[in-house]
């Protein structure tokens, strides 16, 4: 009965050493020294805000895109034990000890490393040689821009990983379709294709481009195979529903600045006062501080008061506040009135200080009347509404507008953001616009009862009345339709600059040494990718013209292989690059990286095709192989040359000047 135990149980497995070695090399190149620099690097200042909000479990709506990428970054923070307590307000700021830098950067780095074996497998599934596949993987491995982008808390490496995973999964599914349809593997790769495409779109809406490409290719494949056959409630409603829509006298509200930069924040006050005298010798009013605070807090609550009445509760029926009405804003916890006067702001001396008024019995009267102006009104009688209305507050006495300056206050202001009174004559800006995010009708006239009321939640539990799809649809629609202000940036660029890498981005600069990190690509690889695209296009047009005249220069199977490679690589480059010419947004070099990845995959495909079909003699093949070796050596040389600004190694002024291969590159050189 137990005779089968007489022989050992043997398990055999095939291990592709190429894949193992490439994966290890990828991990080393992306994970080595990952905690350096221990400072905020470029857009980490932006994504870090979302991580902190997730760590603190604070609801927010991000107008930059879908949430999956931010959630994955937050996962890194969660695994590292991050509590979310760090003020992301300045590039180059040193991380405090509670920030797990390595953990926060780990997932983007891991995704970047895994792109290397994915590139190898994609070329294998396209039926190209293992030598060509190895070449594609090595080019991805030695691409400086991809290394830089994957070593920090950024999203592009995660996006590229899911894009390549989707492409690989579809190719495996398609190859299984021809000989083992509806097998376990067939279903696995089909489902993984859908999951990877969804994840790509969930990281950035750019992932939709590759999703649509794969759908088009799948449609073409099935056309050949089958012939001729062929918002009401939701996400944001959790905030707005269960709250009054119309703001009335006596309403308790929180006010969020519409600009959302350098981070989203809410109008805030606390018991601390401005210093009597600042570090530069200027004096202040010594009134109660008013700031913009980037986290939800009970001190963010304000009461809308009618200047002609003393009550701080909503009457029955409520009296709505309309465009042009005069109000007073009373701080909920301290009951002091929002005030501004002809005293210079602490960090913006050309603007007025904003405070909550304290009566010191001196000749400084309260100036606390504000006119409500609804910026997006349809008529001059519009009612101020929760979420929907964008308002600015114009000071009656001085005509100054309540504005977020964006400057970070010193330690006495707890590094919170400065709020000022800006003269209206200086024009309109989103930093002057606020909207009501949370709202309740005040019911308690007594301060102690009101404090209890302010600490209580504003929302009713309405989840049981909303389906998941209703919430999801509403949230996605709001994200797509939220307005982003078009702004210029020192390192912004046009899509035309990317092909020839006429631009770069300085990500980080050491405060004392010459060490710096730049988003710069491997010059040899970028040029080779452009040449490969031109050669592929010209050869394809030549073959098409010749085939039209019934002249077949290459075998039919080679032609189908050539076309399939173009659908993936050239198609991937086109759909991830050309749409940027239609986008009205601030563009950066890193937006080109998904398109570049597809273009890099095309290089070994073109090289193998030239070797197999245009080099007919043994001598020509030998010469061509020698040229490939020389060319790859130049790729390695370019990689090593620019490695110091990829990994942030210290450089002398002379070494930095030597790296400026193009006059348009902004290599930062300190004056001696």
UniProtKB/TrEMBL annotation:
Its EC number is 2.4.1.109. One of its GO terms (cellular component) is endoplasmic reticulum membrane. The chain crosses the membrane at residues 15-33, 67-88, 100-120, 126-142, 154-174, 186-203, 208-226, 526-545, 557-575, 587-610, 622-642. It is found in: Endoplasmic reticulum membrane. PROSITE patterns: MIR. It is an enzyme of class 2 (transferase). It is a multi-pass membrane protein. Pathway: Protein modification; protein glycosylation. It comes from the Eukaryota. Keywords: Endoplasmic reticulum, Glycosyltransferase, Membrane, Repeat, Transferase, Transmembrane, Transmembrane helix. It catalyses: a di-trans,poly-cis-dolichyl beta-D-mannosyl phosphate + L-threonyl-[protein] = 3-O-(alpha-D-mannosyl)-L-threonyl-[protein] + a di-trans,poly-cis-dolichyl phosphate + H(+); a di-trans,poly-cis-dolichyl beta-D-mannosyl phosphate + L-seryl-[protein] = 3-O-(alpha-D-mannosyl)-L-seryl-[protein] + a di-trans,poly-cis-dolichyl phosphate + H(+). InterPro entries: ArnT-like_N, MIR_dom_sf, MIR_motif, PMT-like, PMT_4TMC. The keyword Phosphoprotein does not apply. It holds the Pfam family PMT_4TMC. One of its GO terms (molecular function) is dolichyl-phosphate-mannose-protein mannosyltransferase activity. Residues 244-307, 318-375, 379-439 form the MIR domain. Belongs to the glycosyltransferase 39 family. This is Protein O-mannosyl-transferase 1. It comes from Gallus gallus.
């Amino acid at each position: 009965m137990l005779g089968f135990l007489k022989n050992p149980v043997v398990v055999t497995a095939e291990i592709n050493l190429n894949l193992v070695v490439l994966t290890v090399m990828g991990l080393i190149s992306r994970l080595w020294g990952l905690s350096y620099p221990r400072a905020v690097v470029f857009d980490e200042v932006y994504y870090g805000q979302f991580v902190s909000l997730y760590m603190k479990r604070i609801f927010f709506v991000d107008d930059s895109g879908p949430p999956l990428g931010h959630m994955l970054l937050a996962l890194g923070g969660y695994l590292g034990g991050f509590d979310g307590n760090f003020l992301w307000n300045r590039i180059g700021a040193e991380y405090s000890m509670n920030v797990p830098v390595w953990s926060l950067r780990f997932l983007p780095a891991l995704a970047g490393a895994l792109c290397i074996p994915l590139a190898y497998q994609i070329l294998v599934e396209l039926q190209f040689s293992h030598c060509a596949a190895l070449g594609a993987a090595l080019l991805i491995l030695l691409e400086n821009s991809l290394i830089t982008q994957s070593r920090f808390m950024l999203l592009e490496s995660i996006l590229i990983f899911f894009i390549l995973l989707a492409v690989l999964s579809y190719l495996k599914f398609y190859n299984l379709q021809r000989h083992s349809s509806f097998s376990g593997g067939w279903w696995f790769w089909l489902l993984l294709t859908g999951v990877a495409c969804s994840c790509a779109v969930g990281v950035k809406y750019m992932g939709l481009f590759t999703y649509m490409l794969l759908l088009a290719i799948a449609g073409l494949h099935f056309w050949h195979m089958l012939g001729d056959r062929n918002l009401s409630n939701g996400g944001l409603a959790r905030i707005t529903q269960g709250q009054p829509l119309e703001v009335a006298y006596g309403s308790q509200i929180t006010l969020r600045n519409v600009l959302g930069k350098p981070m989203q924040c809410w109008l805030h006050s606390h018991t601390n006062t401005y210093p009597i005298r600042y570090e530069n010798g200027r004096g202040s009013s010594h009134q109660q501080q008013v700031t913009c605070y980037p986290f939800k807090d009970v001190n963010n609550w304000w009461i809308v008061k009618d200047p002609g009445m003393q009550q701080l509760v909503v009457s029955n029926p409520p009296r709505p506040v309309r465009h042009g009405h005069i109000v007073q804003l009373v701080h909920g916890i301290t009951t002091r009135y929002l005030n501004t006067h002809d005293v210079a702001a602490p960090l913006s001396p050309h603007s007025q200080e904003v405070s909550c008024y304290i009566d010191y019995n001196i000749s400084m009267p309260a100036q606390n009347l504000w006119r409500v102006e609804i910026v997006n009104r349809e008529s001059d009688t519009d009612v101020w509404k929760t979420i929907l209305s964008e308002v600015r507050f114009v000071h009656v006495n001085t005509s100054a507008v309540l504005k977020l300056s964006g400057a970070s206050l010193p330690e006495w202001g707890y590094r919170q953001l400065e709020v000022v009174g800006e003269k209206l004559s200086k024009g309109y800006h989103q930093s002057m616009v606020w909207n009501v995010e949370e709202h309740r009708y005040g019911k308690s006239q007594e301060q102690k009862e009101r404090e209890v009321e302010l600490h209580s939640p504003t929302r009713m539990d309405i989840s049981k009345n909303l389906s998941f799809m209703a919430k999801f649809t509403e949230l996605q629609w709001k994200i797509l339709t939220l307005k982003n202000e078009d702004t210029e940036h020192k390192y912004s660029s046009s899509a035309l600059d990317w092909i020839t890498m006429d631009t770069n981005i300085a990500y980080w600069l050491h405060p004392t040494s010459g060490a710096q990190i730049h988003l710069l690509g491997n010059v040899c690889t970028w040029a080779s990718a452009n040449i490969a695209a031109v050669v592929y296009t010209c050869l394809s047009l030549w073959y098409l013209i010749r085939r039209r005249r019934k002249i077949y220069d290459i075998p039919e199977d080679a032609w189908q292989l050539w076309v399939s490679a173009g659908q993936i690589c050239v198609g991937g480059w086109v759909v991830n690059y050309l749409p940027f010419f239609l986008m009205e947004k601030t563009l950066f070099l890193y937006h080109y990286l998904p398109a570049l990845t597809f273009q890099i995959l095309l290089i070994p495909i073109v090289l193998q095709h030239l070797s197999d079909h245009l080099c007919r003699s043994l001598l020509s093949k030998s010469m061509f192989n020698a040229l490939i070796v020389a060319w790859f050596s130049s790729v390695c040389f370019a990689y090593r040359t620019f490695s110091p600004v990829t990994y942030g190694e210290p450089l002398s002024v002379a070494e930095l000047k030597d790296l400026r291969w193009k006059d348009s590159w902004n290599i930062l050189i300190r004056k001696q």
